[in-house]
Amino acid sequence: MNWFWQRRRPVRLLRLRARGDQSDAVRVDFAELAPDVEVFLGQAAYLQLGYFETLTRLIRRTPDLAEKEALSLAAGAALKKHRGIVDVMRSRGAEPTELMRPFQAHLDEFRWATLGARPRETMLTVHITAGMLDDFYVALAATYGDVGRQVEKVLRVEHDREQLVELLTSTIEEDDEMRGLLSMWARRLVGDTLLVARAALRIEADDEETIEPVFTALVSNHSQRMTSMGLAA
After folding, report:
1. pLDDT tens, position by position, 40-60
2. CA nearest 162: which of 134, 190, 194, 123?
3. Taking the domains of the chain in order of start, what are their residue ranges?
4. CATH topology of domain 36-229
């Protein structure tokens, strides 16, 4: 599916800052690689809606009350981000469903492909993929002026996944078999998630070296998340 309008675009600047890094962000100049702002908004909003759906489905499958509470906090944060981006769309006079619809099938396919067979795998999926893609869309937001700044503010709202991380960390510390399984699962998630980020840009064969620093930074941030849980990246 072609996600992007076929016309020339101005040069835009994509930057990514590693978590806790106070030095200069990784900066990459793009010529005709970033999507139109409507495409950016539609993708970013539908991703957050998808995370909300995944987490609420998991709430229904989870009997433990403490786990339900942890999942509900993360689901609420994803819904808040979705609604924040929808508000940006409406402030521009756009209909949110029309901007999101072109990406529904593709992003649903990504979401279903990365659902785990076990609740802990699905929790890890949300933490890893949402973390990487929030980083990516925050970086991409820098190319859209005031609209981008509004979206960046929305995406930087607290994700409320700390309790999920605590559940995952406890499992990893207590169960060697699950530690190995979750490590392998997370490594698979990286490739699938980078494909989603790559698909959000107009990339030709000779653009690969240009975008490599940004994807390297995404993986670096991912490695920090893994290490903080006691998993090998």
Report:
1. 999 999 999 999 999 999 999
2. 123
3. 36-229
4. Ferritin (1.20.1260)
